[in-house]
């Protein structure tokens, strides 16, 4: 007791106080141990909830009232009534009435109904079940054939079942009562479709299809899609069955149902099912449904995404037209190209025979190696042109190494050399020239490099590359004769005479004839010294050198002196010299050309026995003189070339060139003849006087331009590698194609030509 009080359990403490009081009373009445008193033991058993034990203790002592009181205190009226009935207590009915009243007061109508049912009062039990909101139990009791009920009661039960939402029970109740229509209605309200269908199959067969449809719809609402499929099929609602199967992810079943439908219904579902199998990578199934959906392009796209190119092409070629296949593949290839999947895009382009699109794709993406690979495979005739085009493009982008490779692959390594030269990348130019053109080609590049450097640096460069001879030549052409002599003496003594000769020619051009003479002699070229003085008509010095160093040339000097006299119309002096050197026939020819027939006849008669004359010539001259005829007039134009031919015959090509160049448009209107004379000067420069090539060609080209002979002038410029001058001439003449043709070998001038072309437009 104290413990319960300490724990705050006052009810238990109070109960124990009563027990203690009973024990103390019993002990006071003479019982040795009050705790052994039957009431104490019964109460303690009750406290421990051992009610049957407490009941036994009390009944053994005949304490029936105490046992019934215990159960009443515990509101276990049924147990109290059971004791009363077993002991035939007169208050049994009173207990039952009190118990029923208590049940009703406490809202325990169900227990009250059960009590009445046991008593056989079915009507009251049904009423209590209904009152307690238990129409189902009321219905079950009402269906007992031993307890027939009035129609009003049955209606009340059915209404209560429906009102409580127990439609299936209401339907079953009504069905057992033979009310089929109302039972079916109740089943429908309660979504008890299985019971409704079973009832309809027996009583209302026409309602079965509608019920199956309703059942399917209800199952869909309940998200029981798998179960709904068969009910839609039973109802003939195949579209709903397909959609339910699709939503339930029952794709195979959906396909089976779709196979039974007309094409107009099936196609859209075939496509949807195909997309599912596509997503799950069941490609064969997806293909079958795509084909049934008449969407072969989707199957092709599926296989393309999966990199199954062969299957994609098989489907496309089987079910699509060639044009459609081409369009589809090109579009797909372009999509792959945009995604950066160039290899896959190439494969598609090639499959539909569109290699040009693949080539252009690689070009746009600057994958030039792949581009060249395809050109070599499919457009072999354009391979060289493609290499060249790429090389020019890369050169403009300053990607010289890549440009070089393409120049070389196009068999145009010289353009690679020119590219490096134009950008002053001489080491690379020499490397390419040596690798593809051999040692001589590399030496030419090295020489060009030296020219660009100029002076001593250029000569040192040539020496560095082991081009001693070229270095000497370069030094002489640059006027650095001191270095040329030094290189010759230390490394190539055989070149000394040539250096002396070039220095002599330099002095001659400078008008330093005495110094030139000395160098000609040192070069063992007295003939050139003689020619120099002959050209200056310094006959005294010419004869001196001939007599001292080249006796065989004395006659040539005198002949040149004579021709000089002819040019001055000093025929007597010329005759004297011709006779002196034993060339009387030339004197006769001189007088004939000068139309001095008497003098010609006189000399012929006087020297009739001289070589080249004879009696026949004397006779001919006599006849011509007698008839007053002259020798055939060669014409003024032929006279314009006479002096040049004389110098040619005399072995002096340089002076012959000067004679030809003295002829200008003021001396004749015959443009063709002028062109012939000047071309003769160019020919001599190229074949016999190479040191004057640039000078002569430049002069002749300028004259031809003045005469409107643009193409000939430009061709001369090209002949001496004066490419820019040639281009300028073509531009001036409006010959744009020819100007562009030059840039194919000299791409550094391409922008120059196009700029002028735009300005002319």
Structure description:
The chain starts with a helix and ends with a helix. It contains 50 helices and no strands. α30 (426-453) packs across α31 (455-464). With 761 residues, the protein is an all-alpha fold.
Average pLDDT, to the nearest integer? 75
How many separate helices?
Answer: 50
Helix proportion: over 70%
Question: Cα-atom Rg, whole angstroms?
Answer: 67 Å
Give the termini distance in whole angstroms: 127 Å
Structural class: mainly alpha
Number of strands: 0
| Outline | elongated
In the predicted model, the low-confidence regions spanning at least 5 consecutive residues are 628-638
User: Strand content of the residues, in percent?
Assistant: under 5%
Major sheet: none
Write the layout of secondary structure elements.
Layout lengths: L1 H6 L2 H19 L9 H10 L3 H10 L3 H10 L3 H10 L5 H14 L3 H11 L2 H10 L3 H8 L8 H13 L3 H10 L3 H10 L3 H11 L4 H14 L3 H10 L3 H10 L3 H9 L3 H17 L3 H10 L3 H10 L3 H11 L2 H17 L3 H10 L3 H10 L3 H11 L4 H14 L3 H10 L3 H10 L3 H28 L1 H10 L3 H10 L3 H11 L4 H15 L2 H10 L3 H10 L3 H11 L4 H14 L3 H10 L3 H10 L3 H10 L7 H14 L8 H14 L3 H10 L8 H17 L5 H14 L3 H10 L3 H11 L2 H10 L4 H11 L1
Helix pairs in contact: 2-3, 3-4, 4-5, 5-6, 6-7, 8-9, 9-10, 10-11, 11-12, 12-13, 13-14, 14-15, 15-16, 16-17, 17-18, 18-19, 19-20, 20-21, 21-22, 23-24, 24-25, 25-26, 26-27, 27-28, 28-29, 29-30, 30-31, 31-32, 32-33, 33-34, 34-35, 35-36, 36-37, 37-38, 38-39, 39-40, 40-41, 41-42, 43-44, 44-45, ...
Question: Would you kindly provide a brief summary of this structure?
Answer:
This protein has 761 residues and is an all-alpha fold. It has 50 helices and no strands.
């Amino acid at each position: 007791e104290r413990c319960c009080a300490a724990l705050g359990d006052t009810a238990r403490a109070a109960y124990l106080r009563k027990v203690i009081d009973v024990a103390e009373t019993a002990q006071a009445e003479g019982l040795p141990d009050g705790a052994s008193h039957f009431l104490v033991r019964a109460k303690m058993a009750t406290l421990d909830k051992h009610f049957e034990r407490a009941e036994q203790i009390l009944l053994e002592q005949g304490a029936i009232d105490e046992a019934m009181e215990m159960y009443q205190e515990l509101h276990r009226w049924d147990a109290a009534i059971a004791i009363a009935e077993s002991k035939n207590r007169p208050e049994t009915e009173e207990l039952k009435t009190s118990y029923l009243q208590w049940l009703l007061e406490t809202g325990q109508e169900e227990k009250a109904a059960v009590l009445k049912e046991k008593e056989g009062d079915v009507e009251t039990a049904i009423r209590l079940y209904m009152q307690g909101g238990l129409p189902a139990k009321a219905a079950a009791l009402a269906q007992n054939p031993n307890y027939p009920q009035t129609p009003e009661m049955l209606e009340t039960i059915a209404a209560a079942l429906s009102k409580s939402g127990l439609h299936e029970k209401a339907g079953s109740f009504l069905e057992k009562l033979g009310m089929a229509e109302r039972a079916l209605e109740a089943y429908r309200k309660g979504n008890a479709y299985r019971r409704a269908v079973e009832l309809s199959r027996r009583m209302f067969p026409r309602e079965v299809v509608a019920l199956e449809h309703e059942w399917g719809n209800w199952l869909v609402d309940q998200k029981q899609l798998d179960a709904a499929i068969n009910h839609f099929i039973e109802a003939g609602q195949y579209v709903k069955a397909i959609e339910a199967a699709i939503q339930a992810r029952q794709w195979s079943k959906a396909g089976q149902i779709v196979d039974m439908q007309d094409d107009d219904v099936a196609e859209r579902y075939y496509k949807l099912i195909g997309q599912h199998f596509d997503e799950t990578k069941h490609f064969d199934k997806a293909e079958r449904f795509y084909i049934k959906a008449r969407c072969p392009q989707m199957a092709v796209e599926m296989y393309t995404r999966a990199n199954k190119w062969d299957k994609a092409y098989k489907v496309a070629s089987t079910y699509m037209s060639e044009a459609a296949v081409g369009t589809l593949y090109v579009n797909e290839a372009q999509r792959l190209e945009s995604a950066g999947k160039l290899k896959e895009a190439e494969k598609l382009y090639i499959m539909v025979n569109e290699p040009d699109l693949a080539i252009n794709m690689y070009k746009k993406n600057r994958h030039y190696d792949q581009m060249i690979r395809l050109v070599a495979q499919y457009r072999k005739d354009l391979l060289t042109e493609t290499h060249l085009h790429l090389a020019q493009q890369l050169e403009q982008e300053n990607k010289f190494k890549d440009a070089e490779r393409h120049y070389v692959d196009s068999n145009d390594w010289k353009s690679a050399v020119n590219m490096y030269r134009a950008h002053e990348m001489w080491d690379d130019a020499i490397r390419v020239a040596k690798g593809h053109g051999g040692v001589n080609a590399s030496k030419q590049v090295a020489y060009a490099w030296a020219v660009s450097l100029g002076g001593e640096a250029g000569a040192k460069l040539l020496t560095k590359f082991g081009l001693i001879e070229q270095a000497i030549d370069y030094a002489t052409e640059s006027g650095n004769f001191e270095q040329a002599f030094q290189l010759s003496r230390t490394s190539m003594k055989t070149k000394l005479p040539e250096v002396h000769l070039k220095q002599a020619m330099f002095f001659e051009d400078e008008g330093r004839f005495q110094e030139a003479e000395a160098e000609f002699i040192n070069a063992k070229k007295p003939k050139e010294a003689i020619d120099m003085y002959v050209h200056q008509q310094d006959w005294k010095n010419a004869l001196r050198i001939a007599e001292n160093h080249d006796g065989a040339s004395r006659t040539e000097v005198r002949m040149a002196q004579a021709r000089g006299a002819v040019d001055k119309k000093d025929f007597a002096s010329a005759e004297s010299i011709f006779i002196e050197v034993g060339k009387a026939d030339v004197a006769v020819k001189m007088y004939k050309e000068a139309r001095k027939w008497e003098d010609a006849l006189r000399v012929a008669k006087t020297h009739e026995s001289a070589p080249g004359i004879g009696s026949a010539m004397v006779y001919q001259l006599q006849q011509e003189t007698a008839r007053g005829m002259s020798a055939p007039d060669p014409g003024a134009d032929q006279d314009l070339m006479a002096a040049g031919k004389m110098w040619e015959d005399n072995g002096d090509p340089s002076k012959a060139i000067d004679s030809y160049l003295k002829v200008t448009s003021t001396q004749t209107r015959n443009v063709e003849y002028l062109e012939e004379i000047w071309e003769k000067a160019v020919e001599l420069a190229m074949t016999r006087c190479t040191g004057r090539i640039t000078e002569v060609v430049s002069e002749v080209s300028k004259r031809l331009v003045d005469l409107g002979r643009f193409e000939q002038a430009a061709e001369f410029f090209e002949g001496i590698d004066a490419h820019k001058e040639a281009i300028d001439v073509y531009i001036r003449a409006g010959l744009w194609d020819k100007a562009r043709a030059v840039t194919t070998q000299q791409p550094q001038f391409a922008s120059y030509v196009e700029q002028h072309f735009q300005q002319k437009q």
